[in-house]
Amino acid sequence: MTTVVTKVLGGTAKPVGILYIEPDLQVEDAGTGTGLDGGLNAPFVADLLSACLAHERCGVHLYRSIAGRSTMPDLRERYEALRTETETHVALLEALISDTGGNPMYVSPAARATEGAAARLVETTWVLDGSLDTVTAELAMLEAVLLAETKNHDNWELLGELADAMTAGSWRDSLQAAVDQVLNQEDDPLGWARETRRRMLYVAATGSEPPAATPAHRDEAADDAAVTPDSATVTKEELYHEAKDLDVPGRGAMTKDELAAAVAAAKEGDQS
Question: Is 2 part of a structural domain of the chain?
Fold first, then answer.
């Protein structure tokens, strides 16, 4: 697994704009000669995969940085777990690119833009470093996680949709297996980041824990329970595959409970 690409490690790139790339490291079309065709725009998909990989590599650096600075043990533990999880994503994407005959050390223009945005995101977590306002400093780090995980989920959900659009083949199977592995994670990092941020903001603003649900929400939850599968007896992976069979949009970014509700709603719609 590589988190920093250099020419010593075999890094290559596409020359664009004023960016200078040494001639022997230039790549004009990273999709040529790879197994990315499958009914897709191979050059574009090669650049897209490079950008997705860049986002995961930058995520490793983000989690390493904030895990070392967080003063809250529970957040620090979660950031360490997310770093390990993101390293797995890096390895998955490197293997996928290599399996097509591509080079995981290739850095596309989109990957460079991703790296630039990610660097700014890490910078935001340092703005209040050393501040006496530790809650706001922790929230700055948590919000960076929320933004990073939002794009991460969108990337993997898109890759799943591309797998659906590809012609049958071993690489399509490998891509789908990787997507399933990432999107079916039981710990749901995006959902965790959302809920933890909301809770910390609520507690800071009110001095008390947020309510479990408002009366209106409780009524809606009771209605949903009548048509939602029992999540205690169904895994998130099973729900995800069922949602895929039912062509539920946005399934990749859903929590387990959201998947259960969406599957129930889709089944109810089919029956009506």
Answer: no
